[in-house]
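User: My collaborator sent over this chain with a note saying "see what the structure looks like." That's all I know about it. Can you take a look?
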Amino acid sequence: MSLLFGCILCSTVIRADDLPSYYPPAFRMSGTLERLDLQSGVAVIGDMNMTLSDNVHVYTLSSRFSSVHTLHPGIKVGVSFSPRGGEKLLITDIWVLPDDYRLHPTSRHN
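Assistant: Without extra context I'll predict from the sequence alone. Here is the result:
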């Protein structure tokens, strides 16, 4: 688990060029949202199973303040998270990325 967490932290080189000014210059991790279960608070990005914070902030290309209800499987996202303890990471921020956004090769961990 420690090695996996270390690899994720090293993925900060993902660039956010040509995105709104309220997007960060780099994301802790990015990938495709594979599954979202709002009832249980679980999101799967790539093959990473993570927990959504009760106060997760969602940013879209058109709005700095959005809701998790705007998210759906198949979209590209950048995320910020904190260690929660246990096996899952706690997602604190989600930025919706454009469909044509090129994900950095290290942004998906197998």
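A starting point for your reply to your collaborator: Residues 2-107 form a domain with the OB fold (Dihydrolipoamide Acetyltransferase, E2P) fold (CATH 2.40.50.320).
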